[in-house]
Every structure is written in structure tokens, then in C-alpha cells.
Amino acid sequence: MTEHNYNLVESAKQLEDYLHRLLNENVVACDTETTGLYIEKGARICGVSMSGANLHYYSPVRHTTGKNIPETFKLVDEFLAQYQKPIVYHNAKFDLKMFKMDGVDFPFHVDDTILMAHMVLQDNFRANLGLKKLCSTVLGEEPEDQTMLLKHLKQFVTDDNKSPMGHIAEGNPTIVGQYAQSDTRFTRNLYFALRDKVKGLSEDLYQLETQLMKYLVHTELRGVLVDRKLLEKLRDETRVILDELIVQIRTESGLPKFNPMSPTQLENLLFEILGLEKPTDSVTKKTGRVSMGDEVLARFDHPLVQKLRKYKKSHKLYSTYYVGMGDFLTKDSTIHCQFNQVGARTGRFSEEKPNLQNIPRGSSVRQVFAVRPGYVSYRYDYSQIEYRLFAHYCRDKTIVNGYKDDPKFDIHQLTADELGIDRVDGKTVNFAVIYGAGNKKIAAQLGRSISEARTFLSKYYSRFPGIASLQDSVKMAIKDRTRYEGRGSDRKVVELGWIKDAFGRRHYVEIERSYMAVNRLIQGCAASLLKTAMVNVYDYLENQAKKSWGDDVANLLNCIHDELEIEIKKDCPHREKIAMKIKEIMENFHQFKVPIYVDMKITETNWAEAKDWDGPGSTSPAS
Predict the structure, then answer these.
(1) Does residue 265 share a domain with residue 203?
(2) Measured between alpha carbons, how far is 109 from 195 in angstroms, rounded to an integer?
(3) Of the candidates 500, 527, 543, which is a domain's last residue?
(4) For the ranges 355-359, 402-406, 462-466, 596-600, which has the lowest average pLDDT?
(5) CA dist list (Å): 618 to 233, 406, 576, 612
(6) Count H helices, E strands: the chain?
(7) Residue 592, domain member (yes or no)
(8) How many CA atoms lie within 13 A of 524 on its CB side?
(9) Cβ-based neighbours of 230, under 8 Å, separated by 6 or more
(10) How many domains are contained in the chain?
(11) 303, 371, 515, 603: which could form a disulfide with 436 (CB 3.0–4.6 Å)?
């Protein structure tokens, strides 16, 4: 096909020959070309490309022109069952999910250049992890440009809002194949460029991420059940509320075209028309305007402002959840969120399509997430995990002993008692310290003077000396590990300083933001803890529970912040035993200086109705 020995497969026999030759390769890169991005919306594989050192091929399977090779999936599955060396993908979870839909099982050994690059390039987190940009950054060259392919596909576009890539199955397999094989060729090259660097950082952590990635395929394909009728009912009711509120707001403000979702119009209404006092502590440096979030609006005891708050909250529920989630609802009333393992600098998950991480506590949205018939939903939430890790790292005797002596130890009440403030303010101070806030920020959050905040902090550090020691030590580590090149005005940072969490993961911090290092350490360790727990729970479910009591006995459905949701068959006689074993796994796989606890909830109906559950014998809906 080209100078790089690209090949378009024209028969099953030819594909068999290519795959046989690839068995001799030490590393094979693989990629799928698909009709879309979302399986739930009907996207499927239209072609498969693979690359060895000097052999590349593209096998079309669902193109509308040219010859397809329907035996592709069967032959690729047989190849993967034999090949026990690395199969490399760029964004492996996507390709593995797509393969699953056509009966192709996981390779023996999966590598993902996105996960590799995220580990290696953490100190430059804003680096684009797309294949083209990564190859340019790491290899100094880029794969085949999309320009020719997009120009070719544009002829099939009939909807101006649809990307040409959505018509890839209609494209000429020769043109599509050249683009696909260029991607696998460069993915393989990128793997070799990153492999040793990953090993130099932490091979164990990388293996954890790749193992978790394979398990997340199952979670994403399983999805969570949604009560469609209730979702539509809440959508319609909220629409009525919004329509009524907007009429009232426009009438009372005297602004017939007022848009409550416009920060500029909102600021004008509050401070120019209503004459309310502008909060100077909420003015953003970049724009000079007041931040118009709910925390600012809540300060004003004005009836119109209260209606504005209700409108904004209702609008958020309506647009993001009642309408937004509906866009991702499948025919069988399930939603299949996508978990991004590299979505946050701390290592925590981000979630999209849709994002369930920010659903407000106590909101009606939680009612729509139903439990599958025949199952019981168990929710496992790490109790005060950030503060327990805070205690582990600061080693302050008072805090450590508090958690050791009392499972229900209340660090916020302790802080409140020591500083002579109420518990709410004690919690505010604790959060502020973890997040590296200074006197001015704490004063604003407490509604106190800067002088009072300074006194609180001084007393806080005096009472809990381990906290000040932790802050000093992490700042020093960031400073000592920051590497520079050049002198004078030419001096620049070439490697950020870092701190390492209890699981060996490095967390990079800019030296001018070293005040954030404690928070980065705690958030990062919490992320490592949760990911390790997920892998351990998955291992138990796959290798013990399912082998003993059936493949459908239990499934890990979701991860919301520090909480896992697992469904277990209601009629399984060992259901409670499985539930308690999961709790045990999550609490005991790593030793910290304070005990780690997991709170459990249980429900047979929906997320909103989940009740506390203390184990066998406790009162619960499923007992």
C-alpha cells in the first residue's frame, strides 16, 4: 500500500497469514475504526488494524464499499488467545469494549500508551494525551494527518452537525486503512519510547491501572438502571417550575428579557438595580466581576434573590440531569458512564457521558437510579477517608489516637472545641488547612476578620503540631526535587518537584503552589487507595464469588468519589457473606497509622432510599 508496508486485507486466508506472522513479533499494536464513539448509540467496529515491526494490515468488516472480511473477529480472537506478549492500544478501554460487542476477548497482556504517558508526563499534566500530540512530544514526529481522510469522508456528510468521522464506514477501505495503520505503527513506536520510563517510575502502579482498565470495561458495559418514567416525570415537573419562576423573576425585576443564567445580567440586577452590597471577597482577579455562584447568592436575604437561587438550582437539575441524562439513556433504560482514569491530576477518576459525580445529596435525581430486578444494591463508602489519611501523614498524636480509640471520632468537633468555635466552622478550618488556604481565604469562609483567622490558625498549629510539620516537610520535598536549567533570566523549571503517596504514586506540584502539596498528597493517596480497592474487589468477584455462585451473582456498577456500588443477586444464599467480604477487602488490604472504615448502605429500590446497614442481622430492606 505504501512505503511503510501497509496492507489492505482482501481475504480471510490473507488475514490468517498476517496474524500467523504477527505471532513472531515481540509487541503488536492494535486499533479499531468505528462508526461512532458510543456503543449505546449503536457504534460498532468497521475495521481492525494491527502493526508489528515491519508488518501492518487493515481488515475491513463493516464498510459499505469494497470487500469486507467477516471472519476478522473470529481470527483476531483466536490470535489474541495464542499471543502472550504485549498488545498495545492507545485508549485501550475503548477498543476492548468495542471488541467485546463482537465476541473478541481480552488479550493476555494489554498495554495502553495513554496510561503510560500519563505516568511519565505527570509533571506536564496539561500535555495533550491524544496520539498525534503525544507522538510529536515524545517521538518528534506525528502519524498520518487526518486531512486527506476527512476530505474523503466529507462527501458523505448530509448533516452539518455531524463529523465526517461518523461516516468512516462509508469511506474507501484503502484510504481509511492507511490512516488506521499509521496510528498503530506510531502507537507501537510510542510504546517503546515510554516503556522503560514507566518501569523507572513504578511498574506496579502501571499494572494496577491496566488491570483496572480491563475491569472497567465490564462496569461500563453493565451500566446502571434508570427509572425512565420517573425521569420523564421529574423533567416535566421541573420544566413547569422553571416556566413559573422565570415569569415571576422577570415581572418582579422589571426586566422582560432577563436571563438568570447570565452572570453579567445577574450582577447588574443585584448590584445596580436592587442596590445590594457587592461582596469584595468574591471578585475574580481575571475578570474583575463577582462570582455569581450559589455560595455568593446565599448571602443575600432578598426574596427575589431566593427565587433566583431556586431557578438556578432547578435549571441545573433540568439541563444536566433530567434532560442531559436522557440523551444517554438506552432502549433498555440503562446509562453507561465512561470512567476516565487520567481525568484528574491527583489520579482520581473523572466521569462523563454522563457525569454522576456531582449529583447533589438529597436531590430527587438519586431516585431515578434504580436497582435491577432480582438484585440488592450495596454501597460502600470510605468513611472520612481524607481526614484519616491526613492523620496518617501528619502523625499528630491527638488526631491519630482519636481515630484509633473511637470508630466514630469527629475531627471537626475536636477542632471546634480547641478553637472555641462551632462544629461547622471547625469543619471549614480543617478543609481550609488541607487545601492550603491562608488567613485571607479562611477569614472569608468563616465570615471573620483576617486577624481572627490568623489567631485561629496560630492556635490550630500550636494544638496540632504534626500538621505544621507535615506542611513544612512536603513543601521542602517539592523545593528539593524541583530541577532547573539555565541561570538568571534564562533559568527555567525542567522537572517539577514531587511527593510520593503510600502506594508509590508520584504527585507533581509547581513550586509556587507548594502550599497545595498536602492536599495533592491526600487526594492522590485516596485515589490510589480506591483504585487498588476496586481491583482487589474485582479480583474477589471474578476469581471467587462468580466461580462459586455464578457469573451473574455480583457486579461492580459504579464509583462515586469514595463510594463503590455493587449489586448482588437477592436469592444468592451467600449474599450477605459476599457483601461483608467486600467490606473486609476494602478496609484491610493496606495498613495505615489509623484504621480505615467503610460505611455500608443497602437498597432494593433506588439510590435515594439506600439505608445504613451494619451487616447480617441488622434491620434492612433486604434482610
Answers:
(1) no
(2) 14
(3) 500
(4) 355-359
(5) 34, 21, 11, 9
(6) 21, 19
(7) no
(8) 23
(9) 367, 368
(10) 3
(11) 515
Residues 479 and 432 in one domain: yes
Instruction: Report pLDDT for 489.
Output: 83
Q: What share of the chain is helix, strand, coil (3-state, %, to 5)?
A: 55, 15, 35
pLDDT of residue 623 exceeding 70, the answer is no
- How many CB atoms neighbour CB 308 within 10 A? 23
What pLDDT is stored for residue 161 in this prediction?
57
Residue 436: which CATH number? 1.10.150.20
Question: Would you state the pLDDT for residue 4?
Answer: 76
Residues 342-397 pLDDT 10s: 877 788 888 888 888 888 888 889 999 999 999 999 999 999 999 999 999 999 99
List phi, psi (to 5°) of 495.
-150, 125
pLDDT at residue number 124: 63
Confidence band, pLDDT 50/70/90 cuts, at residue 487:
confident
C-alpha of 325 from chain center: 17
pLDDT higher than threshold 90 for residue 235: yes
| Domain encompassing residue 118 | 12-221
For 245-273, the pLDDT digits (tens) are 999 999 999 999 999 999 899 989 999 99
Give all strands of the β-sheet with 369-370 in edge-to-edge order.
334-335, 224-226, 369-370
Cα-based angle 486, 487, 488 (whole degrees, multiple of 5): 140
Residues 206 and 233 in one domain: no
Select from 269, 297, 332 the last residue of a domain.
Answer: 332
CA distance 256 to 249: 9
Distance CA 62, CA 100 (A): 16
Does 170 reside within a domain? yes
Percent of the chain with pLDDT over 70: 97
Identify whether 618 is part of a domain: no
φ, ψ for residue 225 (rounded to 5)? -80, 140
3-state SS, one letter per residue, for 140-173: CCCCCCCHHHHHHHHHHCCCCCCCHHHHHHHCCH
Tell me if residue 564 falls in helix, strand or coil: strand
Among 226, 241, 217, residue whose Cα is nearest residue 98: 217
**Residue pointed to by grid coordinates 499471543:** 83
* Shared domain check, 400 and 290: no
Query: Are the C-beta atoms of 11 and 141 separated by less than 8 Å?
Result: no
Residues 123 and 260 in one domain: no
**CATH assignment of the domain containing 301:** 1.20.1060.10
Distance of alpha carbon 256 from alpha carbon 386, whole angstroms:
47
Non-local CB neighbours of 124 within 8 Å, separated by 6+ positions: none
Contact status, residue 134 vs residue 113, Cβ threshold 8 Å: yes
pLDDT at 294 over 90: no
Q: Check which CATH number belongs to the domain holding 199 and give it.
A: 3.30.420.10
Q: Does the pLDDT value for residue 297 go beyond 90?
A: no
